[in-house]
Write a structure and sequence with these properties.
- The protein is of the alpha/beta class.
- It has a single domain (about 5-235), classed as Vaccinia Virus protein VP39 (Rossmann fold, 3-Layer(aba) Sandwich).
- It has helices spanning about 5-20, 30-45, 65-75, 90-100, 145-155, 175-185, 205-215; strands at about 55-60, 80-85, 110, 130-135, 155-170, 220-225, 230-235.
- Strands 3-2-1-4-5-7-6 form a 7-stranded mixed β-sheet, sandwiched between helices.
- The protein is globular, with a radius of gyration of 17 Å.
- Bound molecules: S-adenosylmethionine (SAM).
- S-adenosylmethionine binds next to helix 1 and helix 3.
- S-adenosylmethionine binds near residues 59, 62, 92 and 114.
Length: about 240
Protein backbone atom coordinates (compact mmCIF):
# COMPACT_ATOMS: atom_id res chain seq x y z
CA UNK A 1 0.00 0.00 0.00
CA UNK A 2 1.47 3.35 -0.98
CA UNK A 3 3.07 5.19 1.91
CA UNK A 4 0.88 8.29 1.47
CA UNK A 5 -2.31 6.19 1.56
CA UNK A 6 -1.23 4.54 4.80
CA UNK A 7 -0.33 7.90 6.28
CA UNK A 8 -3.69 9.33 5.20
CA UNK A 9 -5.59 6.49 6.90
CA UNK A 10 -3.48 6.75 10.02
CA UNK A 11 -4.05 10.51 10.28
CA UNK A 12 -7.74 10.11 9.63
CA UNK A 13 -8.24 7.55 12.44
CA UNK A 14 -5.88 9.39 14.82
CA UNK A 15 -7.98 12.50 14.32
CA UNK A 16 -11.24 10.61 15.00
CA UNK A 17 -9.81 9.74 18.43
CA UNK A 18 -8.57 13.30 18.96
CA UNK A 19 -12.02 14.67 18.08
CA UNK A 20 -13.66 12.28 20.53
CA UNK A 21 -15.54 10.21 17.93
CA UNK A 22 -13.81 7.15 19.42
CA UNK A 23 -12.77 6.75 23.05
CA UNK A 24 -12.56 3.99 25.66
CA UNK A 25 -16.34 4.18 26.20
CA UNK A 26 -17.04 3.50 22.54
CA UNK A 27 -19.11 0.38 22.00
CA UNK A 28 -20.80 -1.21 19.03
CA UNK A 29 -24.55 -1.13 18.51
CA UNK A 30 -26.57 -4.03 19.99
CA UNK A 31 -27.41 -5.40 16.51
CA UNK A 32 -23.71 -5.56 15.62
CA UNK A 33 -22.91 -7.35 18.88
CA UNK A 34 -25.77 -9.78 18.40
CA UNK A 35 -24.44 -10.68 14.96
CA UNK A 36 -20.88 -11.22 16.21
CA UNK A 37 -22.24 -13.30 19.10
CA UNK A 38 -24.27 -15.41 16.64
CA UNK A 39 -21.21 -16.04 14.50
CA UNK A 40 -19.16 -16.99 17.57
CA UNK A 41 -21.96 -19.31 18.61
CA UNK A 42 -21.77 -21.02 15.20
CA UNK A 43 -18.03 -21.55 15.24
CA UNK A 44 -17.13 -22.09 18.86
CA UNK A 45 -17.39 -25.90 18.66
CA UNK A 46 -14.67 -25.80 16.02
CA UNK A 47 -12.23 -23.73 18.06
CA UNK A 48 -9.42 -25.73 19.66
CA UNK A 49 -9.68 -26.22 23.44
CA UNK A 50 -6.31 -24.66 24.18
CA UNK A 51 -5.09 -22.83 27.23
CA UNK A 52 -4.71 -20.03 26.53
CA UNK A 53 -6.78 -19.67 23.39
CA UNK A 54 -4.93 -17.05 21.35
CA UNK A 55 -6.96 -14.29 19.72
CA UNK A 56 -5.77 -11.58 17.35
CA UNK A 57 -7.90 -8.58 16.32
CA UNK A 58 -6.44 -7.00 13.16
CA UNK A 59 -7.29 -3.30 13.10
CA UNK A 60 -8.56 -3.54 16.67
CA UNK A 61 -9.47 0.15 16.94
CA UNK A 62 -10.52 1.04 20.49
CA UNK A 63 -10.47 -2.60 21.63
CA UNK A 64 -14.26 -2.78 21.77
CA UNK A 65 -14.38 -6.13 19.96
CA UNK A 66 -11.55 -7.66 21.98
CA UNK A 67 -13.48 -6.77 25.13
CA UNK A 68 -16.60 -8.34 23.65
CA UNK A 69 -14.73 -11.46 22.46
CA UNK A 70 -13.29 -11.86 25.94
CA UNK A 71 -16.75 -11.72 27.50
CA UNK A 72 -18.35 -14.07 24.96
CA UNK A 73 -15.59 -16.66 24.87
CA UNK A 74 -15.11 -16.69 28.65
CA UNK A 75 -18.83 -17.32 29.04
CA UNK A 76 -18.54 -20.60 27.12
CA UNK A 77 -15.43 -21.78 28.94
CA UNK A 78 -12.55 -20.44 26.88
CA UNK A 79 -10.36 -19.23 29.69
CA UNK A 80 -7.64 -18.08 29.91
CA UNK A 81 -7.41 -16.11 26.70
CA UNK A 82 -4.45 -14.29 25.28
CA UNK A 83 -5.81 -11.20 23.57
CA UNK A 84 -3.64 -9.46 20.98
CA UNK A 85 -4.40 -6.64 18.60
CA UNK A 86 -2.82 -4.17 16.26
CA UNK A 87 -4.01 -1.06 14.51
CA UNK A 88 -2.56 1.44 12.10
CA UNK A 89 -3.51 4.33 14.38
CA UNK A 90 -1.39 4.82 17.49
CA UNK A 91 -4.21 6.86 19.04
CA UNK A 92 -6.55 3.88 18.66
CA UNK A 93 -3.95 1.60 20.25
CA UNK A 94 -3.65 3.97 23.21
CA UNK A 95 -7.42 3.78 23.70
CA UNK A 96 -7.38 -0.03 23.35
CA UNK A 97 -4.66 -0.30 26.02
CA UNK A 98 -6.76 1.78 28.39
CA UNK A 99 -9.91 -0.21 27.66
CA UNK A 100 -8.26 -3.62 27.96
CA UNK A 101 -6.34 -2.98 31.17
CA UNK A 102 -6.18 -6.27 33.07
CA UNK A 103 -7.41 -8.28 30.06
CA UNK A 104 -4.48 -7.87 27.66
CA UNK A 105 -0.81 -7.12 28.12
CA UNK A 106 0.11 -3.60 26.94
CA UNK A 107 2.76 -5.09 24.60
CA UNK A 108 0.11 -7.30 22.96
CA UNK A 109 -1.68 -4.15 21.73
CA UNK A 110 0.40 -2.17 19.31
CA UNK A 111 0.58 -0.42 15.98
CA UNK A 112 0.64 -2.54 12.83
CA UNK A 113 -0.58 -2.81 9.29
CA UNK A 114 -2.72 -5.69 8.04
CA UNK A 115 -0.62 -5.74 4.87
CA UNK A 116 2.66 -6.15 6.74
CA UNK A 117 3.55 -9.74 7.67
CA UNK A 118 5.59 -8.53 10.65
CA UNK A 119 2.46 -7.13 12.27
CA UNK A 120 1.21 -10.70 12.88
CA UNK A 121 4.33 -11.73 14.83
CA UNK A 122 3.80 -11.66 18.60
CA UNK A 123 6.15 -12.80 21.36
CA UNK A 124 5.85 -16.55 22.01
CA UNK A 125 3.26 -17.13 19.26
CA UNK A 126 5.35 -18.51 16.41
CA UNK A 127 2.69 -21.17 15.62
CA UNK A 128 0.07 -18.52 14.90
CA UNK A 129 -3.33 -17.67 16.37
CA UNK A 130 -6.31 -19.86 17.18
CA UNK A 131 -8.78 -17.11 16.30
CA UNK A 132 -8.15 -14.17 14.01
CA UNK A 133 -10.83 -11.51 13.94
CA UNK A 134 -11.23 -8.34 11.95
CA UNK A 135 -14.16 -5.95 11.64
CA UNK A 136 -14.56 -3.19 9.04
CA UNK A 137 -10.86 -3.08 8.29
CA UNK A 138 -10.63 -4.79 4.88
CA UNK A 139 -12.86 -1.97 3.59
CA UNK A 140 -10.19 0.57 4.62
CA UNK A 141 -7.75 -0.86 2.05
CA UNK A 142 -7.56 -0.19 -1.67
CA UNK A 143 -9.59 -2.84 -3.57
CA UNK A 144 -6.43 -4.19 -5.18
CA UNK A 145 -4.97 -5.17 -1.78
CA UNK A 146 -8.06 -6.48 0.02
CA UNK A 147 -7.74 -10.17 -0.92
CA UNK A 148 -4.05 -10.08 0.01
CA UNK A 149 -4.90 -8.77 3.49
CA UNK A 150 -7.35 -11.67 3.99
CA UNK A 151 -4.65 -14.10 2.84
CA UNK A 152 -2.18 -12.67 5.34
CA UNK A 153 -4.65 -13.14 8.16
CA UNK A 154 -5.29 -16.74 7.12
CA UNK A 155 -1.54 -17.37 6.88
CA UNK A 156 -1.20 -16.23 10.51
CA UNK A 157 -3.55 -18.96 11.81
CA UNK A 158 -2.33 -21.80 14.00
CA UNK A 159 -3.23 -25.34 12.89
CA UNK A 160 -6.98 -25.75 13.71
CA UNK A 161 -7.31 -21.97 13.80
CA UNK A 162 -10.11 -19.93 12.31
CA UNK A 163 -10.41 -16.45 10.76
CA UNK A 164 -13.55 -14.33 11.11
CA UNK A 165 -13.53 -11.50 8.60
CA UNK A 166 -16.43 -9.10 9.15
CA UNK A 167 -17.23 -6.52 6.53
CA UNK A 168 -19.85 -5.32 4.10
CA UNK A 169 -20.03 -6.92 0.68
CA UNK A 170 -19.86 -4.51 -2.25
CA UNK A 171 -22.01 -6.83 -4.39
CA UNK A 172 -25.06 -6.89 -2.08
CA UNK A 173 -28.05 -4.55 -2.27
CA UNK A 174 -26.78 -2.82 0.91
CA UNK A 175 -23.27 -2.48 -0.60
CA UNK A 176 -24.61 -0.91 -3.79
CA UNK A 177 -26.91 1.48 -1.88
CA UNK A 178 -24.05 2.63 0.33
CA UNK A 179 -21.76 3.11 -2.69
CA UNK A 180 -24.35 5.48 -4.15
CA UNK A 181 -24.75 7.36 -0.85
CA UNK A 182 -20.97 7.73 -0.52
CA UNK A 183 -20.70 8.95 -4.11
CA UNK A 184 -23.42 11.58 -3.57
CA UNK A 185 -21.81 12.70 -0.31
CA UNK A 186 -18.35 12.98 -1.81
CA UNK A 187 -19.13 14.49 -5.20
CA UNK A 188 -22.54 16.17 -4.96
CA UNK A 189 -22.28 17.89 -1.58
CA UNK A 190 -25.13 15.88 -0.03
CA UNK A 191 -24.43 14.77 3.56
CA UNK A 192 -25.93 11.30 3.31
CA UNK A 193 -23.18 9.54 5.29
CA UNK A 194 -20.38 10.81 7.57
CA UNK A 195 -17.57 12.11 5.36
CA UNK A 196 -15.03 9.52 6.60
CA UNK A 197 -17.27 6.68 5.36
CA UNK A 198 -16.29 7.79 1.85
CA UNK A 199 -12.74 6.48 2.34
CA UNK A 200 -14.04 2.92 2.65
CA UNK A 201 -14.46 0.56 -0.33
CA UNK A 202 -16.49 -2.48 0.58
CA UNK A 203 -14.79 -5.70 -0.53
CA UNK A 204 -16.38 -8.32 -2.82
CA UNK A 205 -16.57 -10.80 0.07
CA UNK A 206 -18.56 -13.48 -1.76
CA UNK A 207 -15.94 -13.51 -4.54
CA UNK A 208 -13.17 -13.89 -1.93
CA UNK A 209 -15.08 -16.75 -0.33
CA UNK A 210 -15.24 -18.63 -3.63
CA UNK A 211 -11.54 -18.00 -4.19
CA UNK A 212 -10.53 -19.32 -0.75
CA UNK A 213 -12.94 -22.23 -0.93
CA UNK A 214 -11.27 -23.41 -4.14
CA UNK A 215 -7.89 -23.60 -2.38
CA UNK A 216 -7.75 -26.80 -0.27
CA UNK A 217 -7.46 -27.38 2.61
CA UNK A 218 -9.07 -23.98 3.12
CA UNK A 219 -12.83 -23.85 3.54
CA UNK A 220 -14.80 -20.63 3.61
CA UNK A 221 -18.40 -19.72 4.16
CA UNK A 222 -20.37 -16.55 4.76
CA UNK A 223 -22.94 -15.67 7.39
CA UNK A 224 -25.14 -12.61 6.85
CA UNK A 225 -26.68 -10.35 9.50
CA UNK A 226 -30.45 -10.56 9.62
CA UNK A 227 -30.91 -7.09 8.09
CA UNK A 228 -28.56 -7.99 5.22
CA UNK A 229 -25.97 -5.30 5.94
CA UNK A 230 -22.95 -7.00 7.50
CA UNK A 231 -21.30 -10.26 6.46
CA UNK A 232 -18.87 -12.57 8.23
CA UNK A 233 -16.52 -14.66 6.13
CA UNK A 234 -15.46 -17.68 8.17
CA UNK A 235 -12.29 -19.38 7.00
CA UNK A 236 -10.42 -22.35 8.38
CA UNK A 237 -7.78 -24.62 6.97
CA UNK A 238 -9.14 -27.93 8.25
CA UNK A 239 -11.86 -28.36 5.70
CA UNK A 240 -14.81 -27.97 8.09
CA UNK A 241 -15.75 -24.27 8.07
CA UNK A 242 -18.95 -25.28 6.32
CA UNK A 243 -20.04 -27.97 8.80
C1 LIG B 1 -13.91 1.45 11.08
S1 LIG B 1 -12.57 1.28 12.19
C2 LIG B 1 -12.93 -0.28 12.95
C3 LIG B 1 -12.18 -0.50 14.24
C4 LIG B 1 -12.50 -1.83 14.92
N1 LIG B 1 -12.20 -2.94 14.08
C5 LIG B 1 -13.93 -1.87 15.36
O1 LIG B 1 -14.76 -2.43 14.62
O2 LIG B 1 -14.25 -1.36 16.45
C6 LIG B 1 -11.24 0.81 11.10
C7 LIG B 1 -9.94 0.60 11.83
O3 LIG B 1 -9.00 0.06 10.90
C8 LIG B 1 -7.74 0.64 11.15
N2 LIG B 1 -6.94 0.49 9.93
C9 LIG B 1 -7.09 1.11 8.73
N3 LIG B 1 -6.19 0.66 7.85
C10 LIG B 1 -5.45 -0.28 8.50
C11 LIG B 1 -4.35 -1.10 8.14
N4 LIG B 1 -3.82 -1.05 6.90
N5 LIG B 1 -3.81 -1.93 9.05
C12 LIG B 1 -4.33 -1.97 10.33
N6 LIG B 1 -5.37 -1.22 10.72
C13 LIG B 1 -5.92 -0.39 9.83
C14 LIG B 1 -8.07 2.08 11.51
O4 LIG B 1 -7.03 2.72 12.19
C15 LIG B 1 -9.32 1.87 12.37
O5 LIG B 1 -9.01 1.69 13.72
Amino acid sequence: MAHNLIEGQRRSFDSLVERGVYDADFDHAPAAKTFVANVLGEVRQQLPWKKPLTVLDCGCGTGAWLTFLHAQLSLVGFNPLRLCGFDLSYRMVEVAREKLQGLALPDDLRTGNVLDRQSYAFEGLSVGFDLIFTYDVIQQLPRSRQAEACEMMIAALAPQGMALIFDNDSATRFGRRMALRKFLTRYCGLRLVPRYYCNASYPPLERFRRQFDRTPPMRARIMARADGSKRAMIVDCRGDAGQ
